[in-house]
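Task: complex structure prediction.
Instruction: return structure tokens for all chains below.
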Amino acid sequence: MTRPRRVRDLVRAYVRTGGLTRPSRDLDLSALVRSTTAAAPVEASGEERRVLALCSRQRALSVAEIAAHVDLPPSAARIVIARLMDHGLLTTPTHPHITASHDLLKEVLDGLRALV
Amino acid sequence: MDCAPSSEQGGVTYLSDTVTRSTKLLIAGHFSVGKTTFVDCVSEVEPLRTEEAMTQVSAGVDDVAGLPHKTHTTVALDFGRLTLNEELVLYLFGTPGQPRFLPLWHDLAKGALGALVLVDTRRLTESDPILALLEEQGLPYAVAVNQFDRAHRHPLDAVREALDLADDTPLTSCDARDRTSSLHALITLVRFLFNRMEPTP
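Output:
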């Protein structure tokens, strides 16, 4: 065991998702998340409070960024975020998924070209 | 196009408040081919890393107490982002190359526009499982030779042949340490993705 602490933390992370092993909704790692004006319920877990404290009402972060900042594995972060969405505490600005379309690819191409 | 500055607070760089849509590309390739360097180099924010726990059937090492025959290993996932315009942000996920991380792969590939596969000409055969995986998943990809300093420069035609790439698969080269060069490789990929898709009526 070269990194026992990390392994234990990850196991604990699953326990701290309230025993859930799957998110209640389909959430992509790139889905954008914002907080709402709703107040956190008293029974919110430590992980849920950390996620809520991180999220902003005006400026989004992706699910992956939230996972990295609160130091949860993405799978656990997704469960926590999905549950907070179910309770109306977090929201996605638009569609959690956008599919590839000609227009989207044009937009990405133009965006990348403008960065060079 | 100038993008509204994102807001940094306590080490967290939030997106601009006008950004409401996101999309993603994968940066794939075998171990130590330069995926992390590539993502670090093009990302507009400090690249981030999360660690996913993977449960595997144990070979008798690293057993977690109380969970016999199972091993928890972690796989690091590096990612970065690029705000492309006022509304749209692109996430780049460095995708772990090992086939044993297949479940994570499925998850990352879902909804991705495509993948840029970085290859090292000194270890071309190591890219085969990655290309096979992408083809299996039906995820379109372009290939970029990461030009390492000491590597012998192979002509791209030889690389194409060695990798047995389809004629229309774009093949380019880049220096993952150079932002402009890496952005050009991304542009090669997205131009290919754009051209292969019919305009929506």
